[in-house]
Specification:
three-stranded antiparallel beta sheet; alpha+beta; 26% strand
Amino acid sequence: MVQGGLSSTTRTCGKPSCPCHSDPSRRHGPNLYFTWREDGKGHALYVPAEHADEAHAAQLAWARFWEVGCQIAALNRERLRKRWTRSKSSAKAGA
């Protein structure tokens, strides 16, 4: 499981004479990157082509973890709402 997103991008290289600089259709890639934010900054980690399946599985595991965590949080929020509403009603009845 790895937190972040996956993006596929094309890029120009550092060689000014390379055709990728004058023709967008000749850019290098697409290349896969893990992307995330940390300390307010965006980061990217290049994913070598031979590890693309592993990267997709790791990101999918994160997405599932996030989904389950949000479901648990919603259930907990509802339980708190019910408990706090009930205790507020009990306090008014006892006053």
